[in-house]
Amino acid sequence: MVQALEWDSQLIHRYAVNGPRYTSYPTAVEFTAPFSEVDYLNAAKQSKQLNTPLSLYFHIPFCANICYYCACNKVVTKQRSQAVSYIKNLIREMHFHAEYFGQREVTQLHWGGGTPTYLSLELMQQLMEKTNDYFQLVDDASADYSIEIDPREADWATMGHLRQLGFNRISLGIQDFNPVVQQAVNRVQTEEETLAVIDAARTLSFKSVNVDLIYGLPHQNTQSFLTSLDKVLELAPNRLSIFNYAHLPERFKPQRRISEKDLPSPAEKLSILKHTIEHLIDAGYVYIGMDHFALPDDELTEAKVTGQLHRNFQGYTTHKACDLLGLGCSAISQVGDTYWQNHSKLDNYSQQVNQNTFPFQRGFVLSTEDSLRREVISQLICHFELNTQQIEQQFGIDFNRHFAYELDALQLMAEDGLLTISEDNLTVNPKGQLLIRNICMVFDQYLTRNNETTRFSKVI
């Protein structure tokens, strides 16, 4: 059974620090340059021998307009011809990987951005056809092929085309339906545009619709956000992601166009989150973890219940056994015990690919200790529970001795009721689920060693 989380305002205020989201461990800030082709080849060869399924991620960085809150790697341009050369480079990069990954079954595929629907229908067709040429795309109900949709850049024809290409899941950015908020963040998107895309998805038998909302944007308050949430719930999405807006104008220039005086206070942000969680649970949604909610019959919920939930750079997923191959500028790959990331700047990425070299910018090869701690953090953040005996058997350690320092640090959290420590288990309690990042941070050697959390967002 999935336990209902519990809101404890006093604890939330006490533990409101900055920390990683743990889409990987070690986190991407620890990736080092240079990352060599030898490192890649070692990982690719080991992966090829194991013949594990493959998850493909394609980063499409282009946007026609800028959203002031956005911290994604993007290229804002009206010159859509740039996408033509970029797709050629994506295809060329696929060719580089084909020797090692080409014969593997692809059970998961995702186009993210930027705005993937920025591409013309012809470019979408070309990219998917070439993907099918280089990789073995699974063509059955088990495949999860998803794409991020901007309703301002999609219509019924677009949706029909995506369905024909094999996409069966969509994710929509709404952020907020309030027109005052939309104007303040330069994301004017009508309810009619959003409804049209969701109607198309349902009519065309897409099996899942995810909706993204952001709290903490200018001019939001608890009541206004719940009004938007009610409109979203009328659309009955299968999944919802409720993200906390992190205002970091010193790092992300577009955010400088947002006036800090228009942002809700920290207390109001917490009120928005608290009432949103209550609202979603009352509406029948299940808290998956880390901002994510899903309907009871959704595959994420089923994976949560059965212990099959996994987390990677795209968030929570049911495809635990997959290697993740990222293509395009800034895309991150996770193959076995190796991570690598492509150049984040479009010019550098394009230059490397056109020189017939892998466009790596940096990477990381995990040690045995890294792999151990990654498994501990993954179990906690996905299942809110850790079987310490299982970890001992898997890694050949004495858990209490190996993690004596960490267990001592967890005692205060246990006294606060965040988790229960028993002989064979660490179990996150309902009031600790919203603070799962704090619990995971205890096992993060790099965070402790570098004593730097300012590069991360608030845990809540």
Automatic annotation (TrEMBL):
It is found in: Cytoplasm. Residues 48-282 form the Radical SAM core domain. GO terms for biological process: protoporphyrinogen IX biosynthetic process. Belongs to the anaerobic coproporphyrinogen-III oxidase family. It comes from Zooshikella ganghwensis. This is Coproporphyrinogen-III oxidase. Keywords: 4Fe-4S, Cytoplasm, Iron, Iron-sulfur, Metal-binding, Oxidoreductase, Porphyrin biosynthesis, S-adenosyl-L-methionine. The lineage of its organism: Bacteria, Pseudomonadati, Pseudomonadota, Gammaproteobacteria, Oceanospirillales. GO terms for molecular function: 4 iron, 4 sulfur cluster binding; coproporphyrinogen dehydrogenase activity; coproporphyrinogen oxidase activity; metal ion binding. Binds 1 [4Fe-4S] cluster. The cluster is coordinated with 3 cysteines and an exchangeable S-adenosyl-L-methionine. Its EC number is 1.3.98.3. S-adenosyl-L-methionine 1 binds at Y57, G113, E148, I332. GO terms for cellular component: cytoplasm. Monomer. Involved in the heme biosynthesis. Catalyzes the anaerobic oxidative decarboxylation of propionate groups of rings A and B of coproporphyrinogen III to yield the vinyl groups in protoporphyrinogen IX. The keyword 4Fe-4S applies.
